[in-house]
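S.,

As promised, the 4'-phosphopantetheine run. Input:
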Amino acid sequence: MTRVLYPGSFDPITLGHMDVIRRCAAVFDEVVVAVLRNTAKPGLLQHAERLRLIRESCAGLGNVRAVAFSGLLADLAAREGIHLMVKGLRGVLDFENEKAQAHINRTLGKGLETVLMPSSAGMEHISSTLVREVAMLKGDISDLVPQCVADALRSFHFEQR
Ligand code: PNS
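Predicted complex:
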């Protein structure tokens, strides 16, 4: 049974993330979506809300599970007994950074490997950062995120942040 870790901040989950999750769910036995809890950098959505939105977005995918983590990815992979992780690759700008992280995780994780999955055509421009910015300025994000995320951000009180 091949299980794979898909880590990220998911602040919020986007259609780009969903593209990677769906394709992984089709080729691996289980996909564990690992949501970073970063207390030093709280982000926009509360951690519990990010998890809720991932779980709702992935409800139709029986072999996808979302977990919270803090600390090192390599430690989470060891706890989960997982030896492979997937990162989405939108373009060349992502590549050098992902390559460096892959080397570090392979060392820390004693062989923990990283597979880089290129975005599907038409998904390369989608990022959580841009989604947050457009949503904050009350723009339409319905082509960028799952419906539940669009609904959650439409009623989000940005002025509280
Ligand atoms: O969605 P993001 O913000 O690009 O995800 C970044 C993430 C969660 C993959 C990265 O911050 C991370 O790996 N955090 C865990 C800390 C860690 O293990 N660092 C060492 C490996 S570089």
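Strands lie at 3-8, 30-36, 64-69, 84-89, 113-118. Residues 7-9, 36, 72-73, 101, 104-105 surround 4'-phosphopantetheine (CB under 6 Å).

- D.
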